[in-house]
């Protein structure tokens, strides 16, 4: 029997559509779906597991009939509360829509369902010399539908761009059950560009056409070791000034290095102040020349050591440390809060200094790991959620860091999205007229405010307030 705050008739309709194992409604089962990779929580009233676009359409129409909120969910690895059912209602989990439907190597594309794991695409085509470029740190778990919704990035964003640069088309379901298809290869408005990064507030994505890339002829991975984080930050600025664009430039400070090395044994120096993990890709001659150019820049910026991975095993080990960083932090702190601000590359060193000052002022240890090549910082604030009031202080410290990012010409997010985490900061980033235009786009696709309400826009401008005023959230 469904919870009392859902219409009793909905139980029979859902079971008839999906079968007895196609949905969850018991409190103990719903607990898993009340959170994502962030710190916010809110429990849905129902979780459904469609296996086709037709079933998604039927679910959407039922939700419309009973005026229930809908939230799409992939693997739940998001970090901004995007997949949390803030207003209750129905979570649509795409975990059973997990098939690679077509691989078209002559046209360098693949057609996948939203529940396909990011890394599975590369593994399906790598024997033929291809790969899927966007590579979030959670790529072994995160799914393409979530990547599209959040416009996910990753370490290799610097050279390859983010998800929107690799999506050629989308099939999606509107809140009234209408199925639309978009393409980047035809005439007319770029609906694909509008929907990628819309965080599930406009449509439910049911199919994605992704771009495949050819593997480069040569890859070289470098570890540059520094005593001072400021020197590493200056190196990034100078590499850019030399007109060299590596495939990736990742930076980790000393606090992060020690946590990673204790957990993964990736051969990171335990006594360093910071390291840069730099990857070069391309033609053999070009890459070999760039290695020496970058060596000269690193040493000029006081790198105490410059290592080049000798083989694929050494390269994989270095990246293992970077990709497993967040898990390593979990071994050392009861809780941590990860942020996602962006600053111009010239502001990396000053911003690191500011983050350190924030940590001192609030009494928190803050470690830093980020995509230095495009200025996308991920400061991790270590804290204990068992201490009363600690999370509120962490949020205050985090907001100060994001405000600093705005003040120096940056942004409040690079790849984690706005979700429910950064809603209020949107009013600091954008002028009222811009926020109004965003709200108009939302209303165009979802006039009933049923898709992922309570996300993206600040208080007073979003769907949550509209539904509250009309009494629709008294579920």
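Q: What amino acid sequence fits the structure above?
A:
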């Amino acid at each position: 029997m469904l919870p009392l705050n859902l219409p009793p008739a909905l139980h029979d309709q859902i079971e008839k559509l999906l079968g007895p194992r196609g949905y969850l409604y018991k409190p103990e089962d719903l607990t898993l779906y009340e959170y994502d990779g962030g710190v916010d929580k809110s429990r849905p009233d129902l979780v459904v597991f469609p296996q086709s676009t037709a079933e998604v359409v039927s679910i959407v129409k039922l939700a419309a009939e009973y005026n229930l909120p809908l939230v799409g969910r992939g693997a739940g690895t998001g970090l901004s509360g995007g997949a949390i059912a803030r207003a209750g209602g129905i979570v649509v989990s795409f975990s059973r829509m997990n098939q690679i439907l077509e691989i078209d190597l002559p046209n360098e594309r693949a057609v996948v369902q939203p529940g396909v794991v990011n890394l599975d695409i590369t593994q399906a085509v790598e024997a033929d010399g291809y790969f899927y470029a966007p590579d979030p740190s959670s790529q072994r778990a995160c799914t393409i539908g979530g990547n599209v919704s959040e416009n996910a990035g990753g370490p290799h964003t610097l050279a390859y761009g983010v998800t929107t640069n690799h999506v050629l088309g989308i099939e999606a379901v509107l809140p009234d059950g209408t199925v639309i298809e978009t393409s980047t290869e035809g005439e007319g408005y770029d609906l694909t560009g509008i929907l990628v990064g819309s965080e599930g507030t406009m449509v439910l994505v049911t199919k994605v056409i992704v771009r495949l890339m050819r593997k480069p002829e040569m890859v070289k991975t470098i570890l540059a070791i520094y005593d001072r984080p400021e020197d590493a930050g200056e190196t990034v600025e100078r590499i850019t000034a030399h007109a060299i664009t590596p495939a990736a430039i990742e930076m980790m400070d000393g606090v992060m290095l020690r946590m990673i090395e204790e957990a993964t044994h990736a051969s990171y120096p335990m006594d360093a102040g910071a390291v840069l993990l730099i990857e070069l890709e391309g033609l053999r001659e070009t890459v070999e020349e760039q290695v020496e150019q970058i060596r000269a820049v690193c040493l000029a910026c006081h790198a105490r050591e410059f290592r080049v991975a000798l083989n694929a095993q050494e390269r994989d080990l270095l990246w293992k440390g970077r990709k497993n960083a967040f898990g390593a932090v979990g071994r050392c702190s009861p809780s941590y809060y990860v942020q996602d601000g962006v600053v111009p590359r010239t502001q990396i060193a000053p911003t690191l200094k500011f983050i350190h000052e924030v940590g001192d002022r609030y009494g928190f240890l803050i470690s830093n790991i980020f995509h230095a090549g495009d200025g996308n910082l991920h400061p991790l604030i270590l804290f204990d959620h068992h201490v009363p009031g600690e999370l509120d202080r962490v949020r205050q410290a985090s907001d100060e860091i994001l405000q600093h990012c705005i003040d120096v010409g940056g942004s409040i997010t690079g790849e984690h999205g706005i979700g429910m985490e950064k809603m209020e900061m949107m009013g600091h980033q954008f002028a009222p007229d811009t926020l109004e235009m965003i709200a108009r786009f939302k209303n165009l696709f979802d006039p009933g405010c049923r898709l992922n309400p309570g996300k993206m826009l600040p208080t007073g401008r979003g769907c949550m307030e509209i539904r509250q005023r009309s009494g629709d959230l008294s579920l």
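Q: And what stands out in the fold?
A: Confidence is low (pLDDT under 50) at residues 468-475.
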